[in-house]
Amino acid sequence: MLAVGTIDYLNTQPIxxxxxxxxxxxxxxxxTPTVINEALVKGQVAVAAISSYEFACHAQDLxxxxxxxxxxxxxxxxxxxxxxxxxPRELDGALVALSDHSATSVNLLRVLCxxxxxxxxxWRTMPQxxxxxxxxxxxxxxxxxxxxxxGVLRRHIxxxxxxxxxxxxxxxxxxxxxxxxxxxxxxxxxxxAAIEAAGIIPALAAAKTQGLQNIATLAAAxxxxxxxxxGVCAKYLRDLRHNLEESDLQGLQTFLTYALPAFTWQQVRxxxxxxx
Length: 276
Description:
D-Maltodextrin-Binding Protein, domain 2; 21% strand; 12 helices; 276 residues; single chain; 5-stranded mixed beta sheet; 2 domains
């Protein structure tokens, strides 16, 4: 199906907010990363923002779209580990709740535990609810809008009080010195001709250009949904890396070396014959 999938989070707004104006006749699916990942893999959408880990898992069926990403150098502010332990290394053998919205961030935490903290927690995938997660587990991984909001508000949770908070983008930088690419944009290989004919990729580029020129407007429109100040939302968007630069690709390749040892970058093909 010639449709576009977008992640329904603040971090996609630089494209999401203006895309309908440039693609008025192309259907869209908006949902969490896990739902959009599955939709692209199953061919329910032709183009989508997809978790970088899931892209690598299905690289044989997908084309990487150059110049689009959700990445960060250091703190991302929306992929957070909340924990009752002052040091993540104290989570060895402890029960850790994982967001059911995520593919990349879950595997990033696994890599950090193996390569950075040198621990082996026990994992439990759960719906994203910080109170429930921290009632039953010693730590909880949140992503997206919920993580951003909890990270700003820093609430006390039950009788144990205020949990510690670790930003996985920052932890990755400590381990590697590289950016981390959480999501990329990809297209189905079997629909490449139809995607090109429909002008979807130029529309994405035009929407992104307009979005990045209007960060304050996007933030003001989205902030009430999160109950956060518009300035917080604007800073969050400005701190992200949206263009899949060479250093973002280097960070992604390093991550995949840890997370998917059998994967090689030679499997990747780019949308557009000049990059294939």
